[in-house]
C-alpha cells in the first residue's frame, strides 16, 4: 500500500469532553492505546452490531488491539438498527457484569448511540460518574459528532426518542478508513448522502456561525467529488479517508445556547426512519433534494445566499439568480443520489400514502403551521421513483 498523503492522517483535540480525534488509514492500532492511556481507563467494553461482529474482521481487529494492552473485557453485538431500547437494556446488563470503565463503539450510528444510552442509564442507576466512550465509526453518518451529547434510540412503540447530557459526548474518536472496507456499498454511500444532508442543512441551521458554514461548504465539495470516486473504486483507502474527513466537517462539534435541529430533511428522516424501518442514510436520499428545492420558496434571503454558494464549491455554473441556484443545487443533489444508485421512494418501504398527512403534522407540529401543506406536497412527491 502506498504511503498516504499527510492531509488524510493526523490528530485534533477539541475540548474538555472530546479529548482527541485521530484519523488516518490503520490509525486504530496506535490511536486506541493512546486514548486508553490519555483517559486512564483499564477495562474496555465493545458495543457493535451482529453483522459487523459475525461477518467481518473489523470487530476482531479492535478486540486484538485491546487484548494486546490487556484492556479487553466483553463484546456486546446486539444493537439493532435505530438502537431499539430492548438491545440497550440487554447491553446495560452485560456492561454491568463486565465491570468495564470505558465503552468502545464500533460501527454506525446505532452502536454509537447505543453506547451513549448505556452510559446514560448506568449513571442514572448508580449516580456515579459517566463512563468514557471511544467511537470507531465504519460509516459516514457522523453520529460520533452529531449533537454529540444526544443519544437517539427507539422506544417500545417504535418511536424515535433520545436522552441527552453533555457528558455523553465521546471522549475519543478514531476515523480509520481501513476499517470501512467491509462496509456494504449501499450503506457506505447512503451514509455519505447523510453526511451531505448534515452539511447542506447546517447552511441554514439556526445559530450556526459562519466558520461552521465554511467547513460545511468544503464538506459538500468533498462529498460530491469523492462519493462517485468511492463507488468507482471501492477499495481506494485514501478516497475513503477523505470521505471520513468530509463527514467530520459536515457536522463539526458545535455547542449552541439552545438545541437547534439541523433542518426539515432531518426531522422528516426521524419520522420516516424508526417507524417505517428506513435506514438513516436512505432517509436523506429520499428527502434532501426536495427539501432544498423548498428552501427556494421558504428560506430567508441570507440562507438562500449561502445555499447558492454551494454551486461554486461543486463546480457548477450559476443560473444567474439566487432562487435558481438553490433549485439547481437541489437538482445536483438528486443527480448525485441517482449516480450513486441510491434513488428510491416511499412506496419502496411500503409507507402508506394515507400516512402522509400524519407524518407531515408530526414533522411541523400542527396542521395550522404554514409549512404543513408544503410538507404534505413534498411527501406526495416522494412516491413513484424507486430504483433500489
TrEMBL record:
GO terms for cellular component: mitochondrion. Residues 21-176 form the Alcohol dehydrogenase iron-type/glycerol dehydrogenase GldA domain. GO terms for molecular function: alcohol dehydrogenase (NAD+) activity; metal ion binding. Residues 190-364 form the Fe-containing alcohol dehydrogenase-like C-terminal domain. Keywords: Oxidoreductase. The keyword Oxidoreductase applies. The keyword NADP does not apply. This is Alcohol dehydrogenase IV.
Amino acid at each position: 500500500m502506498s504511503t498516504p498523503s499527510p492531509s488524510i492522517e493526523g490528530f485534533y483535540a477539541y475540548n474538555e469532553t472530546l479529548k482527541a480525534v485521530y484519523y488516518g488509514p490503520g490509525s486504530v492500532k496506535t490511536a486506541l492505546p493512546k486514548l486508553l492511556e490519555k483517559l486512564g481507563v483499564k477495562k474496555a467494553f465493545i458495543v457493535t452490531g451482529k453483522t459487523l461482529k459475525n461477518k467481518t474482521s473489523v470487530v476482531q481487529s479492535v478486540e486484538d488491539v485491546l487484548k494486546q494492552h490487556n484492556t479487553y473485557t466483553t463484546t456486546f453485538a446486539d444493537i439493532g438498527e435505530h438502537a431499539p431500547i430492548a438491545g440497550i437494556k440487554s447491553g446495560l446488563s452485560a456492561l454491568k457484569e463486565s465491570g468495564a470503565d470505558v465503552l468502545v463503539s464500533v460501527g454506525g450510528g446505532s452502536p454509537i448511540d447505543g453506547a451513549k444510552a448505556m452510559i446514560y442509564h448506568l449513571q442514572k442507576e448508580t449516580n456515579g460518574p459517566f463512563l468514557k466512550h471511544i467511537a470507531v465509526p465504519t460509516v459516514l453518518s457522523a453520529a460520533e459528532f452529531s449533537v454529540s451529547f444526544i443519544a437517539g434510540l427507539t422506544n417500545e412503540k417504535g418511536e424515535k426518542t433520545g436522552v441527552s447530557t453533555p457528558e455523553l459526548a465521546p471522549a475519543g474518536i478514531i476515523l480509520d478508513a481501513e476499517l470501512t472496507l467491509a462496509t456494504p456499498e449501499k450503506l457506505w454511500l447512503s451514509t455519505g448522502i447523510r453526511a451531505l444532508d448534515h452539511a447542506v442543512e447546517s447552511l441554514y441551521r439556526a445559530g450556526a456561525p459562519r466558520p461552521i458554514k465554511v467547513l460545511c461548504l468544503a464538506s459538500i465539495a468533498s462529498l460530491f467529488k469523492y462519493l462517485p470516486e468511492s463507488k468507482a473504486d471501492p477499495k481506494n483507502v485514501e478516497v475513503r479517508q477523505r470521505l471520513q474527513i468530509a463527514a467530520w466537517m459536515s457536522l463539526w462539534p458545535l455547542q449552541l445556547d439552545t438545541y437547534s435541529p439541523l433542518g426539515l430533511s432531518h426531522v422528516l428522516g426521524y419520522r420516516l426512519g424508526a417507524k417505517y424501518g428506513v435506514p438513516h442514510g436512505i432517509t436523506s436520499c429520499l428527502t434532501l433534494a426536495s427539501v432544498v428545492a423548498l428552501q427556494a420558496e421558504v428560506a430567508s434571503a441570507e440562507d438562500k445566499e449561502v445555499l447558492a454558494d454551494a454551486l461554486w464549491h461543486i463546480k457548477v455554473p450559476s443560473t444567474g439568480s439566487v432562487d435558481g441556484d438553490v433549485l439547481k443545487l437541489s437538482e445536483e443533489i438528486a443527480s448525485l443520489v441517482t449516480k450513486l444508485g441510491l434513488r428510491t421512494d416511499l412506496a419502496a418501504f411500503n409507507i402508506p400514502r394515507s400516512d402522509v398527512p400524519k407524518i407531515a403534522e408530526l414533522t411541523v407540529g400542527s396542521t395550522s403551521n404554514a409549512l404543513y401543506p408544503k410538507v404534505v406536497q413534498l411527501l406526495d412527491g416522494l412516491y413513484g421513483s424507486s430504483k433500489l
